[in-house]
Every structure is written in C-alpha cells, then in structure tokens.
Design brief:
Blueprint: E1 2-4, H1 11-23, E2 31-36, H2 42-47, E3 54-59, H3 65-75, E4 80-84, H4 94-103, E5 109-113, E6 120-122, H5 125-142, E7 153-157, H6 158-165, H7 175-185, E8 191-195, E9 197-199, H8 202-205, H9 208-227, H10 237-241
Parallel strand pairs: 1-2, 2-3, 5-8, 6-9
Antiparallel strand pairs: 4-7, 5-7
Helix pairs in contact: 3-6, 5-9, 7-9
Length: 242
C-alpha cells in the first residue's frame, strides 16, 4: 500500500518503479495507492497508468498519513501486506526483505530502520537531530525496543494489520508509534528492523509544524494507551494465530 499526497509530478515514476521491483521477486502482488486529498492530479495520473495490479483510492479531503493508511489497509487482500511512502525517498528494493521476514515467521512486524548497521542513509543534520530526539522520547514513553520507528516501510500479515489499524486513532505521522505500541501491548512484540537505503530532503515532507503535530499526537497516544487504558486488549496473538 502506498499513501501519497501532492505527488502529481512523480507518482507515475514511483508506481512504475515499485511495480518493477515487486515483479522481480513476487509472481502475485497488488498495489493500493491511497491519495490523501484532491490537491492536484495525483489520482488521475496514477489511474492513467492502467496497471492490472494497481488500485487507486482517492480521499477527497486531506486528513493525514494515518487516515490514508487505515483506508488502504482495509482494501488490501494479500496474505502479507505493508506500506511504502510515495516519493521514493526509500529504496523499494527493501520491500523484498520485509516481506521475507514476515513470510518466514521471523517477524510479527518488519520495519525499515535508518539506524540498522547496513542502512545507507543520506539526510540533513537538522532532520537527524529531530529524529534522535523523537526516538529518545518514544523510548521513554512506550519502552519500545526499536531503534527507529518512523521509516515509512513496514510489513506484517494482513490479519494482524487489519486488526491493529481498526483500533488506531492518529491521522498524522505518529500512527507509526501508535501501531507499534499497540502491537507490543497485544503480544506481537517480534518487531524486526532491517536495512534500508534512504535519501531524504527535509523540506519535502517534514516541517517544524509537522514535528509539533507529531509530538502532540504522540502525547495523545501515550495518554490514551498508558494512562486512560482506552485501547482494546484484543485480538492477541492467541486470537489470531491460535
């Protein structure tokens, strides 16, 4: 699944690259593109590609990555599902690693990580500072073992994804934290980080206002989950896998 916002100029190349990558290791796959708001012609450009494997879903009003992911996860049908951010900041070849980790039973959730020793990452110092600070906060608040929770490349089994996303509330970028924290709470704690290739432009997607919203959303997740205990405790591993 690919969430996208304002990608009219690049979405055709992005989807073509993703399709080519997937066809290199999978004989049967689907790509669900969720366009988060009618702000340009991203949906029309994608639909014009006429790929058999592609489904394009347009959300008329922009509400954020979290809302787009919830919509897309409801639409997927494969046994193993995941999401990859549009824009191709992340090399899509890592999808094969993610899918294999889940398929082989090595991970409940496989997540790309900028801090994996084998990752090749190029992004500005300012963004590195934001990232390290945010991950330190997340470690304190949720006691997650993952070194990097925010890379937009995560895979898991469809049953797990749909059960988790049904209870997620965040509309913005902090849905990654909410997803992992709820998974661990329900006993799906085999979160495995794998290497990725990333070339990030700070200005392209994350601004100071975005960071503020992420912090507020993260605090809200902590308050709902760790203080008010509002998230359902089921389904657990036993409910899904027996």
């Amino acid at each position: 699944m690919v969430p996208a916002y304002g990608q009219e100029k690049t979405i055709a190349a992005d989807l073509t690259r993703i399709r080519s990558t997937l066809s290199g290791f999978a004989s049967d796959f689907e790509i669900v593109l969720v366009v988060d708001g009618r702000v340009d012609e991203t949906a029309a450009v994608a639909s014009a590609l006429d790929f058999d494997e592609l489904t394009v879903h347009l959300i008329e009003k922009n509400r954020g990555k979290g809302n787009a992911l919830r919509a897309g996860i409801r639409m997927v049908s494969g046994d193993i599902v995941g999401y990859l951010d549009a824009g191709m900041d992340i090399d899509p070849t890592a999808v094969a690693i993610a899918a294999n980790l889940v398929e082989n039973g090595e991970a409940d959730i496989a997540i790309g990580s900028k801090r994996h020793v084998d990752s090749e990452v190029n992004y500005p110092l300012r963004r590195r500072i934001y990232s390290f600070g945010y991950q330190a906060l997340v470690k304190v608040m949720f006691d997650l073992e993952a070194l990097d929770t925010q890379v937009g490349l995560k895979f898991m089994r469809r049953e797990l994804a749909q059960s988790l996303f049904a209870d997620l509330k965040v509309d913005g970028f902090s849905i990654d934290i909410e997803l992992l924290a709820l998974a661990v709470r329900r006993g799906f704690d085999r979160i495995v980080e794998f290497p990725v290739g990333i070339n990030l432009d700070f200005q392209s997607s994350v601004r100071a206002s975005t960071v503020r919203h992420m912090l507020m959303d993260t605090i809200r997740v902590f308050w709902r989950m760790r203080v008010l205990d509002l998230y359902p405790g089921h389904p657990t591993r036993g409910d899904l896998w027996g």
